[in-house]
Amino acid sequence: MFSIKKKLVIFGGLLLALELVVMTVLSTPSLATTYPITVTDDLGREVTIEALPERIISLAPSNTEILFALGLEDRVVGVTDFCDYPAEALEKEKVGGPWTPNIEKIVALEPDFILAEEINPIDVIDTLEGLGLTVFGIESTDLDDLLNDINTVGIVTDKESEAEALIDDMQSKIDAVTAETGGLVPGEKPGVFHILWHDPIYTSGQGTFVYDLLEKAGGVNIFGDLEGWPTVSLEAVITRDPEVIIVTAMGGTASGTWEWVNTESRLEDVSARQNGRVYFAESNWLERPGPRIVLGLEQIAKYIHPDIFFDPWDYDEDKNGEISKDEAIGGIQDYFNGLMAKAQAIQVVMLYF
Predict the structure, then answer these.
(1) CATH node for 37-170
(2) What topology is assigned to 185-309 in CATH?
(3) C-alpha pair distances (Å), 270 with each of 7, 77, 147, 187, 234
(4) What is the model's pLDDT at position 7?
(5) Is the pLDDT of residue 315 over 50?
(6) Is a pLDDT exceeding 70 seen at residue 24?
(7) Tens of pLDDT along 163-195?
(8) How many helical (H) and strand (E) elements, i.e. helices and strands, does the chain have?
(9) 97/270 Cα distance (integer angstroms)
């Protein structure tokens, strides 16, 4: 009898020990990334991340969008004054602007990982690094670069599976557009002028992600022979005669740039103005190299090739096979907001009648 009790006690003890081991294993998160890890960033610097980043600061709005899209919001402790998406980013501590970050505020937040961007001054990055902080820089010049940067951020923050899912979703949207535009011949690709500001006139050239977006959307950048974000003359715009003009100035259709493009008398004979093909594109979609850039691609693809991508029945929001008065009014409002051409607005309204 004593022998049986003794065996039961021993067996019970073994079960308890096994339960403790299982609980310990389950409570300890397994990391896909092994730390320390050394990676060369887009600024050409070898950066070593010693351990899983737990206190992250973002120095650019696009970086903040990437971090939140990867599910890292709980680990983000600081963002710039311009980080406004998603809404939760507005609740984070502010560390100044991308060009003039507050070094003291950054140090006070005790970050173990700072995600920088090429817009940040190199002397700021050097100062932060000199203070013993881990700074990793990214720079996207096209969509492939952006997807690669998202993958890298996922690796160094132990969010590889989330990065893979995000990349797959973005790539599928990119492929849906390029499947339609990839076979277009040169004569089927209209000349496009992208303008971010009018005084002086700023546009996008080669080596920018906007250039890549315009190409993938089936357009030809009329200033594709220039590099970066150049200023151009009004005479050059008139001479190159864009068939489509896309405005991304801050302030949207209430901006001085939108008004200037639509009212400047010297532009009245340009094809885009003659044919009512001046559009507004959400600047935060088109000019921020983050996850929402695919929305910008879809938007400008509709502008450049409405014959392929625009469907007036998209305004049938309740999918009842009819365009209601309110839905038709929505189409008219989109026209006045620069979101589609007059011809497309008419298509929507005609479906109402």
Answers:
(1) 3.40.50.1980
(2) Rossmann fold (3.40.50)
(3) 94, 49, 36, 18, 11
(4) 47
(5) yes
(6) no
(7) 999 999 999 999 999 999 999 999 999 999 999
(8) 15, 14
(9) 38
